[in-house]
Amino acid sequence: MNDVITNILICGIGGQGVMTAAEILAQAAMAQGFDCKKSEIAGMAQRGGVVTSHVRFGRKVWSPVITPGTADLLVAFEVAEGSRWADHLRPGGTAMVNTIRLAPPIVSSGLYKYPADPVAQMRAAGVPVIEVDAGTIARELGNLRLVNTIMLGAIADHLPFPATELEEQIVGRFRERKPAMVEVNQRAFEAGRQASQRGNADVSARAVNS
Amino acid sequence: MSAAVQAQPHARLLLSGNDAIARGVWEAGARIASAYPGTPSTEILESLALYPDLYAEWSVNEKVALEVAIGGSMSGARSFCAMKHVGLNVASDALMTITVAGVVGGLVIAVADDVGMSSSQNEQDSRYWGRFAHLPILEPADSQEAYEMVKYAFELSEACNTPVLLRLTTRVCHVKAVVEVGERVVHDITGFASDPRRWVMTPANAKGQIPAQIARETKLLALAESSPLNRMEDGKDRRIGFVTSGPAYMHVRECFPDSPVLKLGFTYPVPVGLVEKMASRVAHLVVVEETEPLMENELKAAGLSRIHGKDLLPRLGELTPNVLIPAIHGLVGEPLPKGSVYPKIDPFPRPPTMCPACPHMGVYYSLSRLRKQVQISGDIGCYTLGAGHPWNALDTTISMGASMGIALGMDKARSAETKDKSVVAVIGDSTFLHMGMQGLLDIVYNRGNVTAIILDNRTTGMTGGQNHPGTGKSLTGDEAPRIDFAKLVEALGVAPERIRTVDPYLLPVVYKTIKEEIAVPAPSVIITTRPCVLSEFFDRQPPLKVIDESCTGCGNCIKVGCPAITVKRTETRTRADGSTHDLKFTTIDTAMCTGCRMCVESCGPKAIVPAQPTAVAQQ
């Protein structure tokens, strides 16, 4: 094992399952023999506020927080939150973004405007973005709670360990508690993987065309 | 959480600092554990409640929690209590005297500082209690250290006849890291032995023990100088050396991997000798401590005048790599490493909000209608959010239970301009039982003209839904006597006809009740009756929708503050006199809506109806 540290920043809104996704990712890294730290400031965030979770793993991890400009991967559960945290990526890092738009009350009541196209904003800033419409995929699979598994599936091919390790961490949890949910989570994971591969192809095409 | 409870010795687990501390407390053979919930310390007791052979309780406040632990220690049981930083302010009266009397069973107090203030009203450095109360301070940097240090703390407590403070921060409590656990050691309870000269702290008895307390500090200093918790880590780049403790150590190692570091875990009394050794090895010595310059000042007082610390580093917030690097690089004149390459995008703020169907919204909606007539003193909990948009219906938040006394002070300090304003105090159920009762008693006793609203949502909401004497359940989930708030406030002297109970979902009733009670020049109490939507007592109803054709765009439902209601279209209308006003046509997110019907109560044209026709509607 070399000294490289993998930094993954997961962001979203209180109640979306950001912390659970980070926990699963951290458990998968630990099962692969990495030292691992997972950090967040929860506090009042469970009341619909901004949530971020930092997952760092490697041979030896010191600080539990990701320094801005060093994240390898940004996993955004909501598109405007993706734009908020995009400056934490290292040059060449990837933003995996769920394209769902969730407006807080101060936006929906007209005090602030929701940006027209946060993905376009990120791309204009030079950030490599892969879009995943996790909400639509979850609806097609019949359960909105699958967004979490879909987003983990989307990053599965961007990790320094096999996708099967991450999948097993998710499925293993359901096998114990809700065996009926195993199969649909497997499908959600695979759908997330495929969606991100399609999104990745889009990014490559854009690079060629530009 | 359960993984740590069931883990066999030598198992390696990914544990939060809080779960790791719980495991350490249990392994140390503790028999008594107590706390009042407070971010970031809450999960320690929630976790401890799952272990066998140990009594664990939610106490009504931190002072009582510490007293329970003191009683346990006096009886020869290893005892533990946990609290957040401001909780130790509450408990400090008991602390300042037990520190003179000492312990029988080891007594460890975990105090969690909210460095960075994610969920607190101030930022405090609890390490100062070490100097103030003559106590040793231990500071873990991560979960593994938290687990190990809490066990060491029990040994130290018994060896030196002193309570021990384990100082945590949010980055220890809530960070998950790899921990290797061990085995439980059994410590039998020896039982209480009467010894009035030791435990009855009359002046004569206390005077007799203070010399021992002072002598203890000399012994503790010698231990700090030789403790394995304080270690020298050498490095080849000797331009800068660091003295650091807590999570700041991790950040220092991350940023300056080749620099020598004196890593302190036993930080009070400050081991000056170790620091002197370090200072002699390096060109510059920097003390990196969150938040106050406590070690720095002690070291300067001891004659180490050329050290750096808060001349370079901020006193507020965490000392994370993005803070440390720019603050320290200038010492050796190196160019600043490149930061982020991508520009900052700031879409819009996303402050925390109340949940759909939160019963607090009904009260704040009504108070916002009465805003010009009332001064509103608030308290600590989810309902502090009433200060925000769209209610703007809170004037003060200071400390647990303070809404009561502050309201009375406001009532007694009226100017010509405010003499006709009514004073309202708003407090949650758990906060009222924690420290609000005495304030209400004071209002009654001193004939205050205050309307107190007890927002009884049957849980401790902001910390994640913990039990208290008003929920009918204990920490372990067992049935417990449930306090009757109406009877309680009557016993405190509020006239029975001035005690009103309302359903906060019935907006016109809430409004009318508040209006009636503020009109009466006597202490009155309004108690709300709906549970927290995140509690087991909440009864979810079918969702609602807005009938497009019926919506007049008045925007009243927006003022309820429910996050499930959004504006889908605005229109500017011109009145006959030429002035303009905006109409806001709304929609309800049926996936979020839980059918509380508060918005229905606010809707003049009756445009809000069940999203799916119900059996009743079809008849």
UniProtKB/TrEMBL annotation, chain A:
Name under which the protein is recorded: Indolepyruvate ferredoxin oxidoreductase beta subunit
SUPFAM superfamilies for the chain: Pyruvate-ferredoxin oxidoreductase, PFOR, domain III
Lineage start: Bacteria, Pseudomonadati, Pseudomonadota, Alphaproteobacteria, Rhodospirillales
Keyword Oxidoreductase: yes
Residue ranges occupied by any Pyruvate/ketoisovalerate oxidoreductase catalytic domain in the UniProt entry: 14-194
Keyword annotations: Oxidoreductase, Pyruvate
InterPro entries, alphabetized: IorB_Oxidoreductase (IPR052198), Pyrv/ketoisovalerate_OxRed_cat (IPR019752), Pyrv_flavodox_OxRed_cen (IPR002869)
Molecular-function GO term, any one: oxidoreductase activity, acting on the aldehyde or oxo group of donors
TrEMBL record, chain B:
GO terms, molecular function: 4 iron, 4 sulfur cluster binding; indolepyruvate ferredoxin oxidoreductase activity; metal ion binding; thiamine pyrophosphate binding
Name used for this protein in its record: Indolepyruvate oxidoreductase subunit IorA
UniProt-listed Pfam families: Fer4_10, POR_N, TPP_enzyme_C
EC supergroup of this enzyme: oxidoreductase
4Fe-4S ferredoxin-type domain residues: 542-572, 584-613
Residues annotated for [4Fe-4S] cluster 1 binding in this entry: C551, C554, C557, C603
Sequence positions that bind [4Fe-4S] cluster 2: C562, C593, C596, C599
SUPFAM superfamilies, per the entry: 4Fe-4S ferredoxins, Thiamin diphosphate-binding fold (THDP-binding)
Organism: Magnetospirillum fulvum
EC assignment: 1.2.7.8
GO-annotated biological processes: small molecule metabolic process
Cofactor: [4Fe-4S] cluster
PROSITE patterns: 4FE4S_FER_1 (PS00198), 4FE4S_FER_2 (PS51379)
